[in-house]
Specification:
Length: 190
């Protein structure tokens, strides 16, 4: 509300800037965020970027399985990653309010190791099918709305260890989801 008493709903809805303390709580991640603070614009179609970005991973770079879990440990999972990650920071309501930091991976690089029966789906409007743990209500991963088959969106904050050689953070405007996706602004993990 301004001094004249008028409400500016659009302005009120804007999110505050994220600080390094808001991000994954490791010195490496915080330093990488402050140093890089990526605002990279991707213009190629998403499927083309997957092929291109995967091809750009060094031939000698090996992937390894990294574990993650919800808060109570009832749901556990593994993700196959290289040592170079891109983590997306989305400002849509659910990602912002839950603190979700996206690691977008192909289905073949993700596996649920325990707790499939502990997952509770949550869907609103035309959004993605989010999956929360029934016990602790943490959102460890979900099927992204942009790619409902073939991909998983994993919460970086639910990973047991994020000490990678390089972690880049990418801002994604989820408040304008359709326009951002159409402009090719979604980032993949590798």
């Amino acid at each position: 509300m301004d001094p004249t008493g008028q409400c500016h709903a659009q302005q009120d809805r804007q999110r505050p800037a994220r600080s390094a303390h808001y991000l994954v709580n490791t010195p490496t991640a915080a330093s990488a965020y402050r140093a890089a603070h990526l605002h990279t614009l991707h213009t190629a179609p998403l499927e083309d970027r997957v092929k291109t970005e995967t091809a750009q991973v060094r031939a000698d770079e090996k992937r390894s399985w990294h574990s993650g879990k919800c808060h109570c440990g009832a749901v556990t999972f593994d993700v196959l990653l290289t040592s170079h990650l891109t983590v997306s920071l989305c400002n849509c309501d659910i990602c912002f309010k839950s603190g979700f930091q996206e690691i977008l991976v192909t289905e073949d690089r993700f596996r649920i190791t325990k707790g499939q029966g502990h997952l509770e789906p949550y869907k609103f409007g035309e959004s993605a099918s989010h999956t929360f743990c029934k016990t602790c209500h943490i959102l460890p991963f979900y099927r992204p709305r942009s790619h409902p088959t073939g991909y998983y969106s994993v919460n970086a904050r639910c990973m047991d260890d994020l000490s990678f050689a390089e972690v880049k953070y990418h801002d994604f405007d989820g408040q304008n989801w359709a326009a951002s996706l159409a402009a090719g602004l979604q980032a993949f993990t590798e």
